[in-house]
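Working notes for the structural subgroup meeting. M.R. asked for a predicted model of this chain before we commit to crystallization trials. I am recording the input and output together here so anyone reviewing the notebook later can reproduce the run.

Input as submitted:
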Amino acid sequence: MNIEIERKFLVKNKDFKNLSYKEEVFKQGYLNSDKTRNVRIRVTNDKAFLTIKGASNASGTTRFEWEKEINRQEAEQLLLLCEPIIIEKKRYYIKNDDLIFEVDEFYADNQGLILAEIELNSEHQKFKKPDWLGKEVTGNKEYYNSYLSKNPFKNW
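Returned structure, recorded in token form:
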């Protein structure tokens, strides 16, 4: 079983952009965004993925995740079957010692929202917090992409 351990933060400013070593544009939709599991279709610059995620643990840091690369054309067709709001965002990758922050700048219905995530090897792993990192929102369901696909940031 694949387990994802991550922490999520708001971002205070756009200083992270100068530190990015890679960028990707994402379009993703949810075939199912139930609170106990979600099924996502994601299309990036040149690839596509089907992802299934389980419910988070009590702290919100850990959950089951299964992902498989799929045909990009088929993924584009599956996006048409997804729940109404498609998430559009640009992801920036920033090295932080031996870890990587993934910072998502959202567009369309979630314009103005910027979130940073860091995947860890254990729930209590320590890491350096950059100056641009803001309030922690790990476990706050409002900041899950599946939530944003039903309740976009523009409506908050």
